[in-house]
Write a structure and sequence with these properties.
heterodimer; A: mainly alpha; 76% helix; B: Rossmann fold; four-stranded antiparallel sheet; 10 strands
């Protein structure tokens, strides 16, 4: 049955514009980062084109492959907190917006399987987006001819981006729970972007290693900086998000 | 509970704080019976139906379907078709695609999609996106979804909503023929005429309480006596005129469905 649930969840995306919107949003990020790299490489040309304002401060930004990859990893990590929250809010929230939740929950299918099915779709969706960002990043890095780009560096970049994307997926199910608890996507989108902000703020404090969203941001900058207790926090966050979503559908009143 | 009892509730109640949406309803619906659950807007019909389907949890009481308490693994829903309140579907998917999703999740044979499309008169709209259907056709799609896996029990909340008079007659005949084949139908409505034409037994719910329950003939006799005693000849004539107009309208628009 789970195969049918997953396949129907994918089928629901047919003709939906939302995957394309997320693809467009994600593809903007490497382009934006590459533009800053190019400005650092060619400050005079950028100034003559009006791309570098007199008050612009790009001090500290290096036009190197490691720096470029660092920003791409941040897109997969920090961007993932926001965008994956949006994706899950859409996958669960459309059932309430279109009034189909009641049809879904009174089918001869365990409700938890729908949660699993939607998480599988979100994972595939997110993996596809991250792959596009990586390939686009490689292409732009090649066009910019950034120093330090070796096969080993590219492989390391792939690893860093994959780890960042994976960590951001672990915190995402909480957005699914917010959606089913509020029966609306709006709260979950607010939650996702709010936690991104919270993660950034608490990332500068002593609680960073215990705050799931800060851990994702720290791990995006340097995966080796994530200690094992922080990994446990991420796994627990994933488990709590999934369990809360299933429990909400199983035991709370539904529309 | 007798083996021919398909759906039963015992002291079923749902309270929201001080509001008693449903307040101790006892029901028994027999195999092959059409049970009309009649009540005004806000009487507790939809809340009851949601509890029957396990969408909301009763504050008290219980629901038994096919002799077993509902809940658990949801397998009991394999024998139940339903329509809850408004007709809904995935707007970006076509009629056929919407039904195919349901087919895959209920394990119904592939052929059933074409069958219910034909049965509900949706063939001209089979390739149309659900979001572009009229309300009446959306309702037909929801009914098609309810019938897709050939359920033995149909729980229908206002099945005639948004249907035109000809559509109401078609659906009425379809439900009657299903009941004749042994399918049990529990349908709610706030329109007496809809229930009067179809139901074998009628329960009247008000303020969450089942205030009356009787076979259709018994209730009809009580209604006639009440109308005779309480209304003037002019008012009774007006009511008959409405019924005549409905029949004439059907005859002019769909002769086959007019009787």
């Amino acid at each position: 049955m789970i195969a049918q649930v997953v396949s129907t969840e994918f089928a629901k995306l047919k003709r939906s514009v939302v995957p394309w919107v997320t693809l467009g949003a994600m593809m903007l990020a490497p382009g934006g980062i590459a533009m800053f790299m190019w400005i650092v490489q060619h400050p005079e040309t950028a100034a003559s084109l009006g791309l570098l304002g007199t008050k612009a401060n790009l001090a500290g930004l290096e036009a190197t492959w490691p720096a470029f990859v660092g920003y791409l990893a941040l897109v997969a990590g920090g961007g993932g907190i926001g965008l994956l929250g949006f994706v899950l809010a859409y996958l669960f929230g459309r059932e309430y917006a279109e009034g189909t939740a009641k049809n879904l929950l009174a089918l001869p299918v365990r409700r938890g399987w729908f949660v699993l099915g939607k998480l599988v779709v979100a994972l595939a969706w997110w993996a596809g987006l991250v792959l596009v960002v990586f390939v686009e990043g490689i292409g732009l890095g090649w066009l910019l001819d950034l120093p330090g780009r070796t096969p080993a560096a590219i492989a390391a970049a792939a690893g860093t981006i994959a780890v960042s994307a994976g960590m951001s997926f672990l915190v995402a199910p909480l957005a699914a729970w917010i959606t089913v608890a509020t029966r609306s996507a709006l709260g979950a989108v607010g939650f996702a972007f709010g936690t991104l902000l919270l993660g950034d703020l608490l990332g500068h404090t002593g609680w960073a290693g215990w705050t799931p969203w800060s851990i994702v941001l720290i791990g995006s900058a340097d995966p080796s900086a994530v200690a094992w207790p922080s990994l446990v926090v991420l796994v627990l966050t994933f488990a709590v998000g999934c369990a809360a979503t299933v429990a909400q559908l199983e035991y709370a009143d539904n529309p | 509970m007798g083996s021919d009892i398909v759906l039963a509730t015992t002291a079923l109640a749902k309270h929201y704080g001080r509001v008693r949406a449903v307040d101790g309803i006892d029901l028994e619906v027999r195999r092959g019976e059409v049970y009309g659950f009649l009540g005004r807007n806000g009487a507790g019909k939809t809340t009851t139906i949601r509890m029957l389907l396990g969408l909301i949890r009763p504050s008290a009481g219980s629901v038994q379907v096919f002799g077993r308490p509902i809940g658990g693994d949801q397998e009991w829903l394999r024998r139940v078709g339903f329509l809850v309140e408004s007709a809904t579907a995935y707007a970006s998917l076509t009629v056929t695609e919407n039904l195919d999703l349901q087919r895959r999740l209920t394990g119904a044979p592939r052929q059933r999609v074409a069958d219910v499309i034909e049965q509900l008169g949706l063939a001209p709209y089979a390739g149309r996106r659900a979001g572009r259907l009229s309300l009446g056709n959306k309702q037909r799609l929801s009914l098609a979804r309810a019938l897709l896996h050939s359920p033995q029990l149909l729980i229908l909340d206002e099945p005639a909503n948004a249907l035109d008079p000809a559509g109401i007659v078609e659906v009425r005949e379809l439900l009657r023929s299903l009941a004749d084949q042994g399918v049990t139908v529990f349908m709610s409505s706030h329109i007496l005429a809809e229930v009067a034409h179809l139901a074998d037994r009628i329960g009247i719910v008000d303020a969450g309480v089942l205030v009356e329950e009787a076979p259709r003939e018994v209730l009809a006799a009580r209604a006639r006596a009440y109308v005779q005693d309480s209304f003037t000849a002019g008012e009774r004539e007006e009511a008959l005129l409405t019924a005549d107009l409905e029949r004439y309208f059907l005859a002019r628009t769909n002769p086959e469905a007019s009787r």
